[in-house]
Every structure is written in structure tokens, then in C-alpha cells.
Amino acid sequence: MAGFLLPPPLILLLSAALGSAAQEEQFRNAFPELVGGIECERVSRPWQVALLKGNQLHCGGVLVSEQWVLTAAHCMMSAYNVHMGSEQLGRGQKIRATKSFRHPGYSKQTHVDDLMLVKLNSRARLSPSVQKVNLPSRCEPPGTKCTISGWGTTTSPEVTFPEKLMCTDVTLISSEDCRKVYGDALGNSMLCAGNTDSNASACSGDSGGPLTCRGTLQGLVSWGSVPCGKTKQPGVYTQVCKYVDWINDTMRKHR
To answer: Measured on CA atoms in the order 83, 85, 86, 87, is the torsion positive or negative?
Structure first.
């Protein structure tokens, strides 16, 4: 399972403290869903998908066309089983995918350009429960109310997986305020969202999942603090509005 990534400075510090890459990976993977969320309304997130490794949750993602899923670059594997069309994993459609296209600027060290397109081996069957997400035509401003969703752990640091897709509301936070928490770790193409009065947040297992605002996809879950759900430490997302041209160009190039 792909972990909800730690802030870049913490990754470096933990790597030194834990003593091995294997121990660091074990620490990351100990924190896989949405902290402080509730079950999503039925068929309210028809573009939400889960990337499975076999039958096990690996990451979240969103359907951007009948044959393409957008997710985080750090979720990359050689092959995926892509779940869609049901709030409960194991139901709905499941489509194999074996081709991934990471953004060429992605960095494992800084998490910059943390997005990737996954091409499905066959086309999804669109229905009321399976729909394409709306890509943004503009970047939404700080203060905008948004929703995040996923099947990741609902508690942290203890791990508790839900039976159904979970949702929670968050608010976009300005880059200036977010840098007060994360400093230079926050890149120009990263977006922050959270709540000052609750512990609602994404967590590991939610990686690559959607942050939607006013009916459009504005972010993909990328990284944040551990344990998840700290009220003054927002989640960090790849800011999708800055990548629409790359998304469309990549899908067109690899038809």
C-alpha cells in the first residue's frame, strides 16, 4: 500500500533515525483513509476510483476519461486493478491497467509535480455511478470550501479501514499561511487544505485521491504530517489547475 507521504524534511530525518530504507518504508506504510470523515452520499463521487494491488488498496484516483485515471506519481506500480462504480471496494467495475505516465518533473525528494496518468487496458463503462471528473478551468482561491474522499485509514496513528468510501469537507488555505507550517517544503504547484476547528484530513491510502471544489478537480492527495488529522497542519495536494495542459497533451499523445 502506498503511504501518505511525510513532508520532505521529515522523510530525511526519519531515514537517518530509522537506519534503513526498509524501516522507513514500514513507518510510512503504517499510516494508510480519511481521518474525521463520514460515509459519502451514494453516487456522489462517480469519478472516484481505487488503485488496487491485487485486491488490496494501494491509492486513490479519479477518472478523467473512459480510459484514463489521474493519481499521484508516488503511487506508481507496474500494474493495477482499478476499482470504480461502487462506494464499497470489491463491487462495481474492476479494470486492469499496465501503463503509467508520470509527470516528467516528479521528484521523490521534494514531491514536486506529484501526478501521474494511468491508462486502462479497456474502456470504462460510463453510467450514473461511473462518470468523468470535471477538470478545472481556473484555480480556486483560499477560503473555498472543498471535499476530499477516499478509502484510506480513518484513524491515525492506529489503522482502521472503512467498509465504504469516506468524505470530509475542508477549506483551501493560502500558500503564505501553509508555508508557516511547512516552510520551503511547499512548492509553487502545491495546494493546502484543512480545517482549523476539526481533525478532518486525508491520510495514507488516500494518496492520489481527489480534492474537489465547486464541481471541479482542484487537487490530488500528495503529502502531509503524521499522525494525520492535526488541526493546524493541513494536507498538501498537487494543484491540478496548473497541469490541465499536461493532462490533455499526455492523453492525446498516448491514445
So the answer is: positive
**pTM of the prediction?**
0.83
Task: Say which of 65, 111, 114, 206 is annotated catalytic.
Answer: 114
- 149, 156, 207, 222: the active-site residue: 207
CA distance 78 to 125: 24
pLDDT at 205 over 60: yes
C-alpha cell at 237: 495536494
- 36 and 168 Cβ atoms separated by less than 8 Å: yes
CB atoms within 10 A of CB 134: 13
Contact call for residues 119 and 97 (beta carbons, < 8 A)? yes
In the block, residue with C-alpha cell 484543512: 194
Residue-wise pLDDT tens digits, 151-204:
876 554 555 667 789 999 999 999 999 999 999 999 999 999 987 665 554 565
CB 217 within 8 A of CB 16: no
Distance CA 106, CA 104 (A): 6
207 assigned to active site: yes
